[in-house]
Amino acid sequence: MNAVFDGIEYRINRQPSIYTNRNGREDCRIMRESSIANGGGKYGDKLYRTIAVFAAEDGSVIRDYERLPKEVTMAALSQWGMLSA
Fold first, then answer.
1. Tens digit of pLDDT for each residue in 64-80?
2. Helix (H, G, I), strand (E, B), or coil: what is residue 61?
3. Does the N terminus or the C terminus of the chain have fewer Cβ atoms within 10 A?
4. Concatenated DSSP letters of 57-68
5. Cβ-count burial of 4 within 10 angstroms (0-12 exposed, 13-18 middle, 19+ buried)?
6. Do residues 65 and 5 touch, judged by C-beta distance below 8 A?
């Protein structure tokens, strides 16, 4: 899903984990629009960088690179279907 908070576009998705110690599990990845695809990727014509990764099954923090927008809470991620907990 794409969302705009404070004029910045974010991409929030649930996908299979890329970490080898989490084989068979899913992660919630939050990416922020960026001028460089540093640790993120290109979706459409926009570049994104990963700012946080959470375990989809319980919401535990796997990686946390930047502060999240205040609208992105564990309750909101659960409501949006990104977390199972």
1. 999 999 999 999 999 99
2. strand
3. N
4. TT--EEEE-SPP
5. exposed
6. no
